[in-house]
Amino acid sequence: MNLSPDAVNVLLWLLHQAQQTGWRWLHALGLTQPLHGQPSWPFTHRLAAEYLLNEPGQSRRLVFALATLLLLSLLGGLAWRWRRGRGWLAGVALGLLVLTPWPEWRLLLRPTVPTAFHQTPNGFSASSIVRGQRAYQAHCQRCHGADGRGEGPDAAQLPMWPPTLNGSLLWKRLDGELFWTVRHGMQDRHGQGTMPGSSLSDQQIWDLLDFLRAQAAGQTLRQTGSWMYPVPVPDVPIVCSNGSRSLSSQRGQRLRLVLTGGKGPVASEDPRLSTVAVGREAADVDCHVDNEELMQALALVVGVRPQELPGHRLIADKQGWLRVRGQPGDEQWSEDDLVCRTNARPTDMAKAQANSVDGLEAIIRRMDSEPVRSQRGGFPH
Question: What is the fold of 126-187+196-224?
């Protein structure tokens, strides 16, 4: 019996928290040195949780192993207090060691770098995305291309063609591992440099990574019609009738962004959604934001030019992931607008329910029932 996706996700979260906790304790004990403003990871390897995503049998074995280790620690405590039963307890412990289906430990480790668990200070803000775009254009575009596909004018002169930045690369690695790659470059198996290191500041590198994820989201949406990898709402301050706040403060409720000024329905409130008018104020909407950087960031995420944004409608789920795109001129919602979805197919019951409600309600029900399970380096984020 294999673990369910939810159980695997919990297991990955536990592994990530265990490493994060160990990382912080090592720093608190003075066993690690600060590097680029954050504690360094002192080991050459980390847990390769991404391996578990492709090997459900190993996930099950790891659960058995963790349970066995827990039982062994309990038996050790009993043996310390119950001297007469030590022989019996030792037999039980030996039986557990022999009968437990242990995972392939060597496969659960992968080489990593000192900044592996460094975390971005940006929060995926519109400002950081725009700053990252400027850094990319100045330092990366000639090799990686304007669209991130690795076909820039200088690409042919490199020892190896640059990989596309629009695939799974940015979502498979930890933030700190990507940071290290940009800072120190890349080498092939023979030690020959395939990408030079960067002279960018730490902040510029974090900005660059935000831009790359925004651009990759827009490029995959253009090419495939979907956000193949989840992307959050770019954060900016917004103004509401009861005061100022940020877009990120809206998490916990479904968020709709209405890009005003173009063709399509006029922005209005809906009790099922928290609506924000982006651009021109809308009389029937409580919150609005007129921010050029947000327009640039959203244009990247949607894969259009900023002047083509008006009329679009975007919906994010309660966790802040963008899930739905309504295009200019489309007044009716349909499930085709759900462009960030899981691989799960709706059940017959879900289809019957969807047929009995309006398009937006069908989207909301499916979005709520199919939450994003996003892993980076195998770990939920």
Answer: Cytochrome Bc1 Complex; Chain D, domain 2 (1.10.760)
